[in-house]
């Protein structure tokens, strides 16, 4: 059966919810590892720096997918593109569950990252279908699916690993991705023919945006820094919680992901204020919360209550800044939202990879306090520019983008 077109079926509440759920399920692929790293270290007999390399590679794979796959959404029907990505992601998760070689697992994790970009194809589609006056709230709603996916992925991963082993996490995820591929194929509306652009020109257009769009450059910088901060915490948290003085199980470690619920609430608040052109204020407030979180996290070295408060502050600061960033960049070039999103998220997950790598080194050499000090440095690198650039947050007037047909 031919799906309805955009003209005959606008962005309904049901379709928005489906897209939010799909985004949450596929982005979870990036975060199942975090509460399991200490267990994988034992199973494969590798050290902290080798195990955290898995997180670095999966984030790097995601950045590669953002750079070279997501831009195709501006020239390829996003229904076909998104469903194809979900199918490949399911196959990679199934493969990861069967491997017993750490070397092969590192390679597969890189590909899992690359095939987890399906949500970043759907987010610009939702922005396209949304009314101009509601775009911030629609983005916040579909991003809430992403945030819930991140939030529950850690808890789900820890609980399932405790009950049936870490490999079962990947088997169940493969099944969920397969189901979502079928639902998306049946429900995403067809689109008008996309412009024909040579692939090399399309990809070149992504990177040329950094040169031509100063607002994008600044928001991409914020994105890189908030993702780095996020991974400074979550890459090494399982080692802290599994060791002295906590000695928590996989299940309990996974439950710490639930403290990130503040990020979901922050996303909706940020979307509300972004629709009212308050991006500068929200950026300053949320980056300040992110910086403050590392002070509480340092106190949490032996105090679970302080640790919980620090996690809430960090997720609130990160997600509030993220939604503000996206509300700004999606107003820049409507005809190139996939490329705009790709350029922004490449920067974000480059920062994520850097945060994962440096956090592993910091924790291995200086412990938890070294990790928190690293996060605080990234936090300072957020707050100072947020204040200095507060008058440059508004998007520039719309104009053509490199790689788009005239």
Integer tally of domains: 1
Give the CATH superfamily.
Answer: MFS general substrate transporter like domains
What is the strand tally? Answer: 0
- H-E string: HHHHHHHHHHHHHHHH
The number of helical runs is 16
What key attributes describe this structure?
single chain; 406 residues; mainly alpha; Growth Hormone, Chain: A; globular; disordered N terminus
Question: Summed up, what is this model?
Answer:
With 406 residues, the chain is an all-alpha fold. The protein is built from 16 helices and no strands. It has a single domain (13-189, 209-392), classed as Growth Hormone, Chain: A.
What report would you give on this structure?
The protein is mostly helical and 406 residues long. The chain has one domain (13-189, 209-392): Up-down Bundle (Growth Hormone, Chain: A). It contains 16 helices and no strands. The protein has helices spanning 13-27, 37-43, 48-68, 78-96, 102-114, 118-129, 135-164, 166-187, 199-212, 214-234, 237-242, 250-255, 261-274, 279-299, 304-329, 337-388.
């Amino acid at each position: 059966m031919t799906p309805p077109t955009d003209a005959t079926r606008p962005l309904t509440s049901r379709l928005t919810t489906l897209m939010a759920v799909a985004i949450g399920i596929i982005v979870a692929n990036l975060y199942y590892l975090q509460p399991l790293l200490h267990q994988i270290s034992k199973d494969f007999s590798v050290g902290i720096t080798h195990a955290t390399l898995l997180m670095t590679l999966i984030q790097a794979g995601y950045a590669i997918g953002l750079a070279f796959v997501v831009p195709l959404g501006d020239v390829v029907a996003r229904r076909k593109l998104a469903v194809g990505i979900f199918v490949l992601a399911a196959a990679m998760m199934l493969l990861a569950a069967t491997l017993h070689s750490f070397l092969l697992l590192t390679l597969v994790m890189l590909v899992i990252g690359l095939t987890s970009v399906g949500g970043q194809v759907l987010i610009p589609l939702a922005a396209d279908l949304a009314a101009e006056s509601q775009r911030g709230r629609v983005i916040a709603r579909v991003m809430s699916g992403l945030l819930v996916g991140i939030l529950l992925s850690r808890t789900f991963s820890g609980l399932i690993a405790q009950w049936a082993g870490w490999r079962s996490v990947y088997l169940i995820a493969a099944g969920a991705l397969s189901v979502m591929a079928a639902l998306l194929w049946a429900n995403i509306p067809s689109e008008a023919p996309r412009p024909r652009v040579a692939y090399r020109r399309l990809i070149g257009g992504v990177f040329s945006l950094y040169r031509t769009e100063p607002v994008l450059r600044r928001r991409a910088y914020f994105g890189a820094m908030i993702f780095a901060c996020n991974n400074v915490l979550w890459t090494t948290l399982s080692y802290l919680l599994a060791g002295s003085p906590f000695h928590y199980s996989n299940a309990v470690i996974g439950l710490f992901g639930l403290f990130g619920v503040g990020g979901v609430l922050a996303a909706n608040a940020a979307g509300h204020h972004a629709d009212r052109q308050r991006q500068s204020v929200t950026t300053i407030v949320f980056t300040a919360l992110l910086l403050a979180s590392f002070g509480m996290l340092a106190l949490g070295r032996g105090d679970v209550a302080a640790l919980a408060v620090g996690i809430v502050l960090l997720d609130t600061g990160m997600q509030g800044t993220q939604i503000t960033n996206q509300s700004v960049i999606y107003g820049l070039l409507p005809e190139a939202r996939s490329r705009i999103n790709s350029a922004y998220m490449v920067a974000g997950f480059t920062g994520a990879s850097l945060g994962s790598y440096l956090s592993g080194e910091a924790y291995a050499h200086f412990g938890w306090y070294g990790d928190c000090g690293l996060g605080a440095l990234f936090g300072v690198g957020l707050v100072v520019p947020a204040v200095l650039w507060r008058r440059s947050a508004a998007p520039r007037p719309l104009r053509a983008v490199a790689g788009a047909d005239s």
